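Re: the 229-residue chain
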Amino acid sequence: MANFQTHLGGAALGGGFVLSGALVTGLMSLNEAIAGWCLVMIGGILPDIDSDHSNVVRALFSILGGIAAVLSVVALADKVPLAGLWLAGATSFIAVRYGVWYIFARFTVHRGIFHSLLAGCLFAVFTAFLAYRAVDLSEDVSWLMGVSLLIGYLIHLLLDECYSVDLTNARIKRSFGTAFKLFDYQNIGNTILMFSLLMGLITTVAPPITELWYLMTDPRVRWSWQKSW
């Protein structure tokens, strides 16, 4: 499989091409294009969150632990003394960084459900939801943020598949076909759960799905791809 540097570099290069096309055609402002480029790079390393010992996992859960610590301190700021706030923050960080990480690692398998198009779509819709509800971006720009992350996600999966082909010895490795798949063929339960989460996000809190359709049929999208390549 491709290493961390290859995934990050491939996503940065591919995202640069795509987002520059979106910028030239007026689909995005400069700030939005830069944010989208960052999301492409995040998507470019995100599938490896199911690798128990990867740098991505450690960094991700450290960030989530920090966020949990800050939220717990903010929530208890007027209710407990300073020592209690320190304890709450430290407990929240440890619970997420090590407790939630352990549970996640226990029930996930590398190159399982997270190395699939279904998982990429779930993360993309979740990104669009955050951009729309939390950051208060417009419907079309929110979907562009989600699509940006999905592009990086797909770049990661494709790079892993490319590394499954040994051109030197003219052979296909046993890992071929495990990195890019529609869903987890080995665990239908996980697939049903993730698909249900995806549909729940789309039908409840994500920007209107019709806006994504209008966006994808916009002539500027076609021109952005042509100008990118």
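The chain has two domains: 4-50+110-228, 52-108.
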